[in-house]
Amino acid sequence: MDPHVALRKSEGEGAKQNPIVMINFHRMPPSQHLSAPQKAVGYRPDIDGLRAIAVMLVVIFHAFPNLLPGGYVGVDVFFVISGFLISNIIFGALNSNTFSIGEFYARRVKRIFPALSVVLISALIAGWFTLLADEYMQLGKHVAGGTAFISNFILLSELGYFDTASETKPLLHLWSLGIEEQFYIFYPLALWAVTRWRIGIFGLIAGLAALSFLANLLFIGSHRDYVFYLPFTRMWELLLGAALAYGSNPASSTPTPWRALAPWVGICCVIGSACLLDGKSSFPGLNAVVPVGGTALVIWAGQHASLNRLVLSRTLLVSIGLVSYPLYLWHWPLLSFGRILGHTSHLERACSVVASLILAILTYTLVERRVRFRPRGKGTVLILVSVMSIIGGCGLTIYRFEGFKSRDAHRKYGVNPDQLSIKPAEAPNYGCPEEIKSSEANLGYCRTSSKSPPTMALLGDSHADDKYHGLAKLDPTHTWILLGNNSCPPLQGIDVETDHAKCKERIDAALKYLCESPTITTVVVSFFQSAVLDTPFAAEHVSLNRGPHKTILRSPLHPDYTKQQAFEEGLAATVRTLQESGKKVVLLIDVPELSFIPRDCIREPSSCALPIETIEERQRVFRKIIADIKARYPTVLVYDPLPLLSRRGRCLYAYGGNLIYRDSHHVSEWGSEYLAEDLLQWLSAH
Questions:
Q1: Residue-wise burial string across 223-248, b where 16 or more C-beta atoms lie within 10 A, e elsewhere
Q2: Which pLDDT does position 374 carry in this prediction?
Q3: 41-90 confidence digits (pLDDT tens)
Q4: How many of the other CB atoms lie within 10 Å of CB of 590?
Q5: How far apart are CA 398 and CA 285, in angstroms?
Q6: What are φ and ψ of residue 517, in 5° steps?
Q7: CA nearest 44: which of 372, 264, 302?
Q8: 3-class SS letters over 481-501
Q9: What 3-state DSSP class applies to 161?
Q10: Distance between the two ends of the chain, CA-based, in angstroms?
Q11: Are 110 and 117 in contact (CB under 8 A)?
């Protein structure tokens, strides 16, 4: 992230400007404004010390999240600093009538591009030798997004049920840089516009900040991810820094009692937030006010306040602050590549932090300073833009060619790169019957395997969707239809509260179609049966705080029923409804959840042992419910995949060099076919 434009005389605010791209703001008398910005403040070493605090919070949080669970607030500290420093530069140029849009963007290029280019190139090289095809393909997309400063939008588009864990995205941290640069695209233009139209600058800053903050509060509950990643809902933090710059007074060298107290309160707010907040906290929202406001207090107090002068201006903190930008760029890729390669011990993470600091110092000394403080000229900027464009083109090429599957990385690990997708497999799809399409249920899953009327049905959620590929591909004698919705267990008459609305209505619509379809003879019911439980187990569910504990089941007929009783009532009702309509019902016992990510086993097979006793205990509750339903409805067939998915007392995640799972609880494309072959033989015998 760059919050970082140090106000140094060596940057030459009075340097010669390009008359072609320069837009001069003609200084107006204060009477023509609501008020006029103060004179620009000179270099403040205490702000570099504050940067050091911010970057250390972020690095510690990423390396040791349990040690500092709210360390992510360091990014918000950076936002305020950035708004303050860059606005100071702009306001200084406004007062001297020398502001140039072209010069502003040239300075940003020279500030941001050198270190970022080095890190992006290094990530591409490291990825070539270590990453699997889909990982490298995703890295290519993120590199391209990083060069265009749209990483926040790309990451927002990737959020979803089948998204990979954040730890395996080496450029995840560039979201904040994207927000800043998007803000600085329109911010100077907006200042130019209000000055030209003789509107008060402070009115613009205050108005935009208020709207941004209001949007932040309004949508944090319902659209937290959007509030986190979108520039409009975060720019109030940068604008608060801008407001400080607008009202700053460099002539005030003697701190008042309030200014003396303010930085101590502010730094306590920042560090206290880093200690007390965590990943479950509603953020940004109101929780962001404390670290953001605390940062503003530290800056407002001025460099002569005791904390700023005696602590933040110390040589060590200032030195870390000077390299905070490259340190921020380096630390996360090193930690992320370490996570991908299985180097996750505390010692290994500490080594990654030390390595990132060394690389940051080298980047700052050998690259950033030499480029940034060169005499101004269009040649340097043109070269930097060209290099960044080439890097972005390389990223797009890697993405376009799906991570170059022929690389040695795959041969080294002995894995078929075509099996590595975490997305559901492409399966035959000849459309959804009109009766379902025209209903208000709007099923997420509705497809058929041929143009003929369906004869076999698969009912459920994503744990039916992952089985559909194999059944549709390997059974040419029947037409299969998939009906269901993500995260909606097919429990008739049960109110299901989950991430997806209208589960009850969707299941009712699917059952109505199945019962009224004369050609369908068999219905296979397959779904995430751990929804009956209150604890997560699958690795993604644990790491992303998703899973069965987020699913609430209620029986309208029996409000006092427990979750397990509601589960059994709903599943029994589904079976009864289907059997009464003359369908043969098959209950497919769910595949085992895995406590690890199968992809990790490619590099570290020894870490992926899962005893069969652990699975049996995890499945004990819903196996008993299925057994009870079987006792009540003896003609129900029950297919158990566990014998197929276990060997020598352990659960299989791969077989014959092929991954059975694509994540910790869905089968892969190969796994779907592996399971379907056995299931189809079993069905033909029953």
A1: eeeebbbbbbbbbbbbbbbbbbbbeb
A2: 74
A3: 678 999 999 999 999 999 999 999 999 999 999 999 999 999 999 999 99
A4: 23
A5: 37
A6: -90, 110
A7: 302
A8: EEEECCCCCCCCCCEEECCCC
A9: coil
A10: 61
A11: no
8 Å CB contact between 507 and 491:
yes
Angle between helices 174-196 and 101-130 (to 10 degrees): 170
Say which residue, 15 or 407, is predicted with more confidence: 407
Model pLDDT for residues 268-315, shown as the tens digit of each residue: 999 999 999 998 899 999 999 999 999 999 999 999 999 999 999 999
d(C-alpha 205, C-alpha 669), whole Å: 53
- State the Cα–Cα distance between residues 316 and 299, nearest whole angstrom: 19
Helices and strands in the chain, H and E counts: 27, 12
Quote the strand ranges of 461-609, DSSP E.
480-484, 495-497, 522-526, 552-554, 584-588
Tokens of 272: 């206290």
Q: What is the largest CA-CA distance in the chain?
A: 92
Residue 140: φ, ψ to 5°: -60, -45
Taking all residues of the chain, what is their mean pLDDT, rounded to a whole number?
Answer: 88
The reported pLDDT for the residue numbered 92 is 85
Asked if 638 and 630 count as a contact pair (C-beta separation under 8 A), the reply is: yes
Q: Which two tokens stand for residue 520?
A: 């369908």
User: Which one, of 340, 12, 408, lies nearest residue 172 by Cα?
Assistant: 340
Q: Any long-range contacts for 15-21 (C-beta under 8 Å, 24+ apart)?
A: 15/103, 15/376, 16/376, 17/98, 17/100, 17/102, 17/103, 18/100, 18/102, 18/103, 18/378, 20/102, 21/100, 21/101, 21/102, 21/103
For 524-576, how does the pLDDT look when each residue is reduced to its tens digit (9 = 90+)?
999 999 999 999 999 989 887 888 998 999 999 999 999 999 999 999 999 99
Nearest by Cα to 102 from 24, 217, 44, 198:
24
Say how far apart CA 62 and CA 539 lie, in whole Å: 19
Backbone φ and ψ for 316, nearest 5 degrees, come out as -65, -50
Tell me which of 253-262, 472-481, 579-588 is least confident. Answer: 253-262
DSSP 343-369: --SHHHHHHHHHHHHHHHHHHIIIIIH
Which of 237, 220, 267 has its CA nearest to residue 76? Answer: 237
What DSSP letter does each residue of 22-54 carry, written as one string? --------GGGSS--PPPPP---HHHHHHHHHH
Q: H or E element: which one contains 257?
A: helix 257-276
Q: Where are the beta strands (DSSP E) in 137-293?
A: none
Residue type, 105: Y
pTM, two decimals, is 0.80
SS3 per-residue string spanning 423-436: CCCCCCCCCCCHHH
Q: List the structure tokens of 103.
A: 């010069």
Q: How many CA atoms lie within 13 A of 375 on its CB side?
A: 1
Q: Is pLDDT above 70 for 488?
A: yes
- Distance CA(318)–CA(205), nearest Å, equals 29
**Per-residue tokens: 193:** 């516009």
> Could you say which DSSP state residue 311 is in?
I
Look at residue 659 and give its three-state secondary structure: strand
Neighbours of 491 (CB within 10 A): 25
Q: What is the pLDDT of residue 39?
A: 54
**How many residues are listed for the chain in this entry?**
686
